[in-house]
Each structure stands twice: as structure tokens, then as C-alpha cells.
Amino acid sequence: PRGKDFTPASPFTFIEEHFGGTQPCVSVRDARGRTWRVKWGEEVQSETFAVRLVWACGYFAEVTHFLPEGKIDSPKELQRASACLDDQCRFKDARFELDDPAEKKMFEEHGWAWNDNPFVGSRELQGLKILVMLLSNWDTKDRRDVARGSNMAIFEVRLPRGRREARHLISDWGGSMGRWGNVMTRGRWDLEGFEAQTPEFIASADEGIIKFGYAGQRTDDVAAGINVEDARWLCRSLCRITDAQLADGLRASGANSDETTRFTAALRNRIQQLQRAAAA
After folding, report:
1. How far is the C-alpha of 186 from the C-alpha of 101, rounded, in Å?
2. What is the SS3 string spanning the chain?
3. pTM above 0.90, yes or no
4. Which of the residues 54, 65, 95, 194 could staple to 44 if both were Cys, CB 3.0 to 4.6 A apart?
């Protein structure tokens, strides 16, 4: 999102450590004066790729980048994040997420729910649900799940001439690119699991309704009621994305050669399933 002008620029200077969420996270300031939230752990690759694909389909997404390595200057008394830096303050495999002062970010009880938002019944919301399933993102908790941590946010953005815009988006895509399912079976950035479930992506397309194999935190809200017109609408943007672009996005998210080839093939298979269902 936002192109090459919004990439993290070293050197990075430590600001503070964060203790919410399940993964180590710190804030840093880069050479351009921008603030980034840096996160480590098993979600960094899946989240970076998912954000790129969602943005490519026209949805709002946070500016997110994967950095395979780097250095943070002047870290102070780190706790969880101490294991992510070596004795020279260098790191590997980190996700950088822009903290834009032009955005007022509203999370948790101030976010939104799948069944309670201005877009219920719209093609745009239905298309977002399809992308959630395409990416096997099982972590779809919303405002009703504040006690467990909602992943649905509203960003209030300042626009020219004093205008403001409320943007509804998914703020955490870390549960993507693995197996969907329950707490015993689901995963993230799991190539074999993603491949294994790909034939089950679309279960059927009968009488204009598409049924998906997906299961997640809010299965009925996400998977129910998707029709062929919803799929056709999304395919106008999704199906323009080439294999080369998918591969570029995967490599930029830290995928190795084998992961890039096989994830690309599995994603293309799922997209083709959606195309066939849309043509039914």
C-alpha cells in the first residue's frame, strides 16, 4: 500500500516496546521521520502478503512491509522483544506497519462487526469475505469478541479541505496462508496445510449460492450468503492479478523459492475455482 515512497528507511531508532497482543512488538522511527510498529513471530509473513493482496483488490489496508534483516539503534530495557535482537541490536524477519499520524485508529469496542456496519449486504463486504476465505484467514474476531481481541478497526482519515473519512478494515491478517479450522487444526503460513485444503475451497455452487469449505472464528458471518454475483464482482479485480504479481508479493513477504512457486499455484487454483463458480 502507498508504493515505494512508504517503505521503511534505515536507520531505525527505538521509541518504545508494546505489550499487547501475542507477539513481541516495538515502535521505531525511521530515517524519514516516520513511525513504524515492528512485530516478530509466526504472523509476519502471512500478514504482509495478505495485506498486499487485499490492497491490490481495492480494499483499505495498513501500510505493511517485511524486512528480512536490519538494526534498531538505542533499544532500552526490552522485555519480550529482547529475544528478537542480537547483541549488536540486529534483527531478522520483521513486519513493519506504518503508524500514520493522519489516521485516528479505533480498535476493539470502537471497531466494527461483520453483522453491524454500513456495508452489510454490499458487494464490497461480500468480496472482502471471499478474500478472507481465499487467504484461509481464520482469525476473524470482530467487535463482539473484544474480550478475546477484535481484528476489525475503523480508521478516521483526514482528507483535503478539512474532510474526514471513516475507513472500515481488517487490522490483523496474521491468521492467513495456512489451514482454516478450529483451534486444533488451524495454522498460519503453513504451505502444506494451505495446499491440502485448496481442493476444498469451494464446496458447491448451486442455485446461485456458493458454499465454501472454510471454517474460522466467525464462520457463519463470513461464509454464508455469498452468491455468484458477489464472486463476479470480486473477480473483476482479483482475476486481473497475474501469477507473476502473486509471486512478487510472496517474495516481498519473505517467501523462499519453493514457497513462492507452490503458494502461487495454490492461490491460482483457488481463484480459478471462484471463476468457475461465478460462471455457474
Report:
1. 35
2. CCCHHHCCCCCEEEEEEECCCCCCEEEEECCCCCEEEEECCCCHHHHHHHHHHHHHCCCCCCCEEEEEEEEEECCCCCCHHHHHCCCCCEEEEEEEEEECCCEEEECHHHCCECCECCCCCCHHHHHHHHHHHHCCCCCCCCHHHHHHCCCEEEEEEECHHHCEEEEEEECCCCCCCCCCCCCCCCCCCCHHHHHHHHHHCEEEEECCEEEECCCCCCHHHHHCCCEHHHHHHHHHHHCCCCHHHHHHHHHHCCCCHHHHHHHHHHHHHHHHHHHHHHCC
3. yes
4. 95
